[in-house]
């Protein structure tokens, strides 16, 4: 007698079982993992590298400092080297004197930012050969910020020749239109702006190329012609109030060299206003009192 075997599962049943089972998930390949982690690392690293390369506090070796001072293609490298030089000068580092001739040379650099920093640095050592003479020449610089920094540095030499430029640091900057036209874009009043920041764009009559109007000083926009306004060449397009740091430095200098005629520029900063910090207000009060005492008016 033959023995019959149990019927086997059909192909359709087997197929159905496989279909209902969870398919294994496909894992990332080694190369995909490397690319994933490399991308994530770069997202974190790139902002740090940008900050590291633009931060003036990053220490430079003597060789780097020398290279940066001569890097005319990268003004920020020159500024970085100048800031480092000024810091070493303030600590009376004798080794830094080897670069003093470079500071004299950079006083006529075509970049305003370089001349501005250079004027400040030369005030860190009043014994520097030709620094005094060079700063006096910089009082005629086309940039108001360079003139102001040169004047502030001269005070360290006991020289009040730049007093007029220091008083000007307390005054709002009146920005005029270089050509006639209409405003096609403008910032808002009350906005903080850095030196060289874009205030407005002007479309000259008969030209499609806009003219950019930039702030000559850091500060806050007091007033500005709004979009669509028509302006004539030479007319006021914006007024920028000076930054608190600039005002404070000017008031400190006038504490030493100010005269009675300067009080009109000082007194607005004695007011209790939101835009005037307590430090600036207190310095303005002390500066006026000292000037009056020096003039024998107290």
Write the layout of secondary structure elements.
Blueprint: H1 11-20, H2 30-54, H3 62-69, H4 75-90, H5 100-106, H6 112-121, H7 131-138, H8 144-156, H9 163-169, E1 173-176, E2 181-186, E3 192-193, E4 198-204, E5 211-214, E6 219-224, E7 230-231, E8 236-242, H10 244-257, H11 263-266, H12 278-294
Antiparallel strand pairs: 1-8, 2-4, 2-7, 3-6, 4-5, 6-8
Helix pairs in contact: 3-4, 4-6, 6-8, 7-8, 8-9, 9-10, 10-12
Structure commentary:
The structure is a single chain. The chain is an alpha+beta fold and 298 residues long. 47% of the residues lie in helices and 13% in strands. It contains 12 helices and 8 strands. The strands form 2 sheets. It has a 4-stranded antiparallel sheet. The chain has a 4-stranded antiparallel sheet with strand order 5-4-2-7, with no helix packed on it. A hairpin with a 6-residue loop joins β4 (198-204) and β5. α6 runs parallel beside α8, α8 (144-156) packs across α9 (163-169) and α9 (163-169) packs antiparallel against α10 (244-257). The chain is globular. The protein starts with 10 loop residues before the first helix and ends with a helix. Mean pLDDT is 86; it is low at 1-20 and 45-56.
Task: List low-pLDDT spans.
Answer: 1-20, 45-56
Please tell me what the overall shape is: globular
Strand residues, percent: 5-15%
Q: How far apart are the first and last residues' alpha carbons, in Å? A: 138 Å
Q: Mean pLDDT across all residues, rounded?
A: 86
Rg calculated over all Cα atoms: 32 Å
> Largest sheet at a glance?
4 strands, antiparallel
Strand order of the largest sheet: 1-8-6-3
């Amino acid at each position: 007698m033959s023995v019959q075997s149990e019927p086997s599962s059909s192909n359709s049943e087997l197929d159905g079982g496989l279909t209902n089972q969870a398919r294994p998930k496909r894992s990332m390949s080694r190369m995909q993992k490397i690319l994933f982690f490399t991308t994530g690392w770069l997202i974190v690293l790139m902002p740090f590298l940008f900050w590291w390369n633009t931060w003036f506090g990053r220490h430079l070796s003597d060789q780097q400092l020398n290279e940066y001072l001569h890097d005319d293609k990268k003004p920020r490298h020159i500024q970085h080297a100048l800031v480092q030089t000024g810091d070493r000068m303030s600590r009376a580092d004798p080794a830094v004197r080897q670069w003093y001739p470079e500071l004299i040379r950079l006083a006529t650099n075509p970049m305003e930012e370089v001349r501005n920093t250079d004027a400040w640095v030369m005030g860190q050592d009043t014994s520097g050969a030709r620094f005094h003479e060079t700063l006096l020449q910089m009082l005629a610089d086309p940039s108001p910020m360079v003139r102001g920094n040169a004047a502030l540095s001269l005070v360290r030499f006991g020289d009040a020749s730049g007093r007029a430029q220091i008083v000007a640091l307390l005054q709002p900057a009146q920005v005029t239109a270089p050509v006639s036209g209409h405003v096609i874009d403008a910032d808002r009043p009350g906005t903080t702006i850095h030196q060289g920041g874009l205030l407005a764009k002007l479309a000259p009559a008969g030209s499609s190329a806009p003219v950019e109007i930039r702030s000559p000083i850091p500060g806050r926009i007091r007033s500005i012609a709004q979009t669509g306004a028509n302006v004539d060449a030479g007319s006021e397009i914006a007024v920028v109030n000076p930054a608190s740091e600039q005002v404070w430095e000017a008031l400190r200098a006038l504490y030493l060299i100010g005269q009675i005629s300067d009080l009109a520029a000082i007194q607005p900063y004695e007011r209790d206003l939101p835009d005037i910090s307590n430090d600036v207000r207190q310095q303005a009060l002390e500066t006026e009192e000292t000037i009056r005492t020096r003039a024998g008016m107290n």
